[in-house]
Amino acid sequence: MTKLTADDLIYGYMNGIFPMADADGTLYWYSPDPRAVIPLETYKPARSLRPVLNKKTFDVRVNGNFEQVMRYCSLPRSEEDSTWISEEIIEAYTTLHQMGLAHSVETYIDGRLVGGLYGVALGAVFFGESMFHLVDNASKVAFHYLIMILRQQRFDLLDTQFINDNVRRYGAIEIPKGDYLRQLKNALFKKARFTEPTLEHLFKNHATG
């Protein structure tokens, strides 16, 4: 098999598939049915998160250290766990980031990266890939600002691929694969730019959900 490229990723996302690596690094492509998505209009921050947002506990940045976010996301969650983010995947997504199509939202404390997430933006779709946190609430705050950015930039679809307890807490639901592909096709034809807005503006308008 040839090496994974940024073009492979673009083609895959446009057709509803995405890669994950096995423990030995072998890449497989997935297209779940049903598909997990997070409706942008229904998300609200958890009540427990609102004091953290109001206190501005974290400094939030966009695309400040994309590759490092991926590397933190690639670390196994436990001794029994393995990672699906291989070096080949990191290299391909980093190239996609350099092309302006893959993005990270990061949280910092005293200049130290402590949480974040990354994904891919095509058309008016954001394909969420993974997140990490080194301190409590760090990834939750990053996700909150991701939602605010997607709303402000008029994205239509937030894909989270598989359902699990982590994405359920953010309001993820499952929809049939056919419905997802129809939404994907429509959203890909729309224009939306994942540009960094004034986060202070987002905070003032959306910290309380």
In words, what does this structure look like?
The chain has 209 residues and is of the alpha+beta class. It has a single domain (6-197), classed as Leucyl/phenylalanyl-tRNA-protein transferase, C-terminal domain (Aminopeptidase), CATH 3.40.630.70. The protein is 36% helix and 24% strand. It has helices at 6-14, 50-55, 66-74, 87-98, 138-152, 165-168, 177-188, 199-206, and strands spanning 18-21, 27-30, 35-37, 59-62, 102-109, 112-122, 125-133, 157-161, 173-175. The strands form two sheets. A seven-stranded mixed sheet has the order 4-5-6-7-8-3-9, sandwiched between helices. It starts with 5 loop residues before the first helix and ends with a helix. The model is unreliable at 204-209 (pLDDT under 50).
Write down the Rg. Answer: 16 Å
Strand content: 15-25%
Shape estimate:
globular
At CATH level 3, the topology is: Aminopeptidase
CATH class: Alpha Beta
Biggest sheet character: 7 strands, mixed
Care to count the β-strands? 9
CATH architecture: 3-Layer(aba) Sandwich
Structural class: alpha+beta
Question: What is the residue-averaged pLDDT?
Answer: 91
Question: How many separate structural domains?
Answer: 1
Sheet with most strands: strand arrangement: 4-5-6-7-8-3-9
Q: Which residues sit in consecutive blocks of at least 5 with pLDDT less than 50?
A: 204-209
* Amino-to-carboxy terminus distance: 46 Å
Tell me the layout of helices and strands.
Blueprint: H1 6-14, E1 18-21, E2 27-30, E3 35-37, H2 50-55, E4 59-62, H3 66-74, H4 87-98, E5 102-109, E6 112-122, E7 125-133, H5 138-152, E8 157-161, H6 165-168, E9 173-175, H7 177-188, H8 199-206
Helix pairs in contact: 1-4, 3-4, 5-8
